[in-house]
């Protein structure tokens, strides 16, 4: 009887020495492993901090980029609600896209769809696109568009080669609209240019269309071929030459008589001979391969060079003011060594979205249009260190000041993008290819003073600053009512003092 307490003490000691199961007993019964919460190691802390910081920066930039898009969409959204007549076409602008140096056209299209298209759609804009897959395509497309406008205005080419030219699809559609009584937009249209490289082609195409001739320049290949080919002899000259050859070769008939019939069949192209069948098959295969591979469309050569601008005459159909335009930034940097700069730009796309949205909103609103300025450096007779002045026209009439350097505003727009261009844009090329991107931008005063640029007004700028960039559909009913009525948040005005303005009691 006295031994029982000793056994109980030993069992209690064993139970105390036995390790207790760690973790939640509920998880243990469900078969889940025991998870011990502890501080991660140094390597895991570095990994989580780097990935977390980069993810946070990406999400922050994406959030503010969407708000910037929505802010400028709200600024122009009222235009989409304005009614338009059924017999009038909506406003249509022209968009100019070109493949950046060293890359394809897809990059320009993606930039347009991501930054430009949302604001245009919010403003109910319609647009035509002139694209260029290589250098010079935008120049050729714009110049041809201006030449077509000059022909419709009554100008005729000197050769009259295009008098009987067939009408294209655009002319046929325009005729159907005129028959149905549908009128074009009577207000400002406008052009939208994406990137510095496209802007240089836009300038060159504008000058070529208004200062160049309507007749295409002569093809240098055909001219050289005409000079190299000898003149064809007449029928009488060839007959006399054949008689002279037959008299000088008395054994020609005997030689022709001794030739084998197989050789004569091969020369005559007898279809029964096996060699003739092989030749026919080769010809057919060559024709089929040539039909399968369509030829690339050749780029039309420029009708006028920049050196001939001063001697060219401006046509009478040229308007006093050309369609206004807006130029959007298109930063495009390539190269593995430029990866840090590209990452920085990727994390700051909200600023690009804000700048692009501001310029596109100015085009859609079309309330403020200004002339292009001229930066002229003058050397004064009294003060040679006089600072340059910026004016809307060249000041060449001053008596005591002599113009030393004149530079138009169009030459300086987005000039900083050229340092990011691929090296292929600056390399020399073989052949007679255009080098518009590498050449200096030349502005003729007659065309430069007619060009206009869109500008955002101060009232629109203030209204954009007050906009918080939230979609109107996401706002509450009370906030929408306040905006409709015109209530503004003012701490000095009490809530019960707000009210609608009614008629004054007499």
Describe the structure.
It is a single chain. This protein is of the alpha/beta class. Helix content is about 45%, strand content about 10%. It is built from 18 helices and 9 strands. The chain has helices spanning about 5-15, 25-30, 40-80, 105-120, 135-150, 170-180, 195-210, 220-230, 235-250, 250-260, 260-270, 275-290, 340-345, 350-365, 410, 445-450, 460-465, 475-485, and strands at about 90-100, 125-130, 190-195, 325-330, 370, 375-380, 390, 400-410, 450-455. The strands form 3 sheets. A 4-stranded parallel β-sheet has the order 2-1-3-4, sandwiched between helices. It has a 3-stranded antiparallel β-sheet with strand order 7-6-8. Helix 4 links the parallel strand 1 and strand 2. Helix 3 (about 40-80) crosses helix 4 (about 105-120) and helix 4 packs across helix 14. The longest helix has about 40 residues, at about 40-80. The termini are far apart.
Described by the principal axes of the CA atoms, the overall outline is: elongated
H/E series, N to C?
A: HHHEHEHHEHHHHHHEHHEEEEHHEHH
Overall residue-averaged pLDDT value: 76
What percent of the residues sit in helical stretches (DSSP H or I)?
40-55%
Summarize the structure.
With 506 residues, the protein is α/β, with parallel strands linked by helices. It is built from 18 helices and nine strands.
Tag the structure with descriptive keywords.
elongated, disordered C terminus, single chain, three-stranded antiparallel beta sheet, four-stranded parallel beta sheet, alpha/beta, 506 residues
